[in-house]
Amino acid sequence: MTSLVLESKGSNRFIRHLYVGKTSLGTGDHMELAMGNKKDKARAAVQELTERPQAETQKAETQNTQAPHLSEHVSQQEPKSVVPKFRPEPIEAEYLNKPTHMQTRKERYEFGRAMRLKCAREAHAEFTVNKAGRENPVELLIESSEGRLEHLVPIRYGRMLTSPFAFFRGAANIMASDLADTAATDYAVQSCGDCHLMNFGAFATPERNIIFDINDFDETFPASWEWDLKRLTASFVIASLNNGHKLSDGRKAAMQVVQCYRDRMKELSELSTLDAWYSYLDYKDLIELTSDKQLKKLRKKVLEKALKRDSFEEFVKLGHVVDGKPRIKDQPPLIFHVEDHGSPEQIERIEESISRYRESLSMDKRVLFDRYEMVDNAIKVVGVGSVGTVCGIALLFAAEDDPLFLQVKEARTSVLERYSHFKNETTNGQRVVTGQRLMQAASDMFLGHYVSTTGKHYYVRQLRDVKVKPLVEIFTPENMLGYARNCGWALAGAHARSGDASIISGYIGKGDVFAEAIGEFSVKYAEQNKEDHTRLVEAVREGLIEVMTG
């Protein structure tokens, strides 16, 4: 049964339209949106409630209450915290009997506060590894390499080998496995799934504003909102250590992420629905607020360069002319053409793929896309976690001096799905596109998806559109704090678009209890990540894994 037949009332109505769930609706019953226990790898979105005491059931029938909406987001199963004291009774409140649009901000805020009974904020500090029960990180990496281009997999491992931070960037599936065993509220939002500090940046919107936001959605899927936050804060600790900063500096940066997330979520909870939806983080404003004069000057210079970089300059860098025809330059092993390049069979496959991709665009964007004609395509290795998946670039021209580069990326199953009660009923390409449009303040107008003739799922976007990457490798501890504020602000906005800002704000509260807990977790996970990186190094030494630089 698809989620399209479910009620669409409430803060998670977007998610229920996109994903399938097992439901149990009836008088006085709760329809839950929960993450569930990873060990049973359940795919159902909702677990049926344990029957309420007879007295409560009779009371509910007498009052003829509707199915309480907001309690959909609270799991009745035991929380994942390893600390027994954080195992209270299920939450019950009269105001939950109202649909979300009839509840006041105060009522929703109080519901968030009530979620602390299920999962105390201090519980998020806990991270202990059951050495016997934990999935082997090296085996998880090998498992995630299945189905990738075999000759590129050693490059993936080689990049992850360079440092614990590089390892962390490519180990989203390992952390997803670990997060599934940690304390969580089970309040689901559309999540990034690979939310680390390198997956944020500045880019141009279709209206030509330059905004700062999340820019990677390969793993996007509904998940408990804390999961993104924990991966992001852990990345700040690991990146800080990678830059030679003190562990205490990394913890401060992690807490800064949470504090800014908290403050921004509170602000969003007080805005109207449309004002919250339209809000975005202007990158030029961020530059002006940069306290470090040298970094401020560098950011201005980088942005100016990005603004001047047009499509033709991109062609000069990546393309050339062969026999009077524009072509993409081969730069093996990172950029290369496939073996049957130019064959009638390949041309036919490409033409069919283009037609399918075109259908995913809105009508006005199809008119724009139809002005271009594709002249070449090639494989292009990108990132760390994506290495080995089919990632390519397509070169199109609207006129002899009017090129356009599109990036085509294979979309695989999200690392979150195996640990979630949600099940993806769309293609993985559509999952990525929908998640990106839902989480970003503004998305690429060429963003689309298709399924190839061989059954692989892909999504498409512009290769570059005034894209500015963070200069994390040169950040001082003070720079890291400033960047942490930016990321916390942006993540709050992304989560508030599918979740309820008042509920999340109510849970976090006004103080630093939650921030301190997440900071402590991040330090613990940084140590675990270091151990996992060491295990990869040992696997390479033992000849279990082949690596290649690139």
Structural features, described:
It is built from 19 helices and 15 strands. It folds into 3 domains: 3-125, no CATH class; 150-306 and 471-541, no CATH class; 309-462, no CATH class. The chain has a 6-stranded antiparallel beta sheet with strand order 9-10-11-12-15-14, with helices on both faces. A 3-stranded antiparallel beta sheet has the order 3-4-6. The protein has a two-stranded antiparallel sheet with strand order 1-13. β7 and β8 form a beta hairpin. The protein has helices at residues 13-18, 54-63, 105-118, 137-144, 153-161, 164-169, 172-179, 225-242, 247-269, 273-278, 283-288, 293-308, 311-318, 344-359, 363-369, 428-439, 477-496, 501-508, 513-541, and strands spanning 19-20, 188-191, 200-204, 210-214, 221-224, 281-282, 319-322, 325-328, 335-336, 373-380, 391-399, 402-410, 423-424, 448-451, 457-462. α3 crosses α18 (501-508) and α9 (247-269) packs across α18. The radius of gyration is 24 Å and the shape is globular. It has 550 residues and is α+β, with helices and mostly antiparallel strands.
Largest sheet: 6 strands, antiparallel
Helix content: 40-55%
The residue-averaged pLDDT reads 83
Tell me the Rg in angstroms: 24 Å
Distance between the termini: 46 Å
Low-confidence stretches: 1-11, 20-97
Q: What form results from the Cα inertia axes?
A: globular
Identify the strand order in the major beta sheet.
9-10-11-12-15-14
Q: Quaternary arrangement of the chains shown?
A: single chain
Q: How many β-strands, per DSSP?
A: 15
**How much of the residues is beta strand, in percent?**
5-15%
Total domains: 3
By DSSP (H or I, 4+ residues per run), the number of helices equals 19
Briefly note the structural class of the backbone: alpha+beta
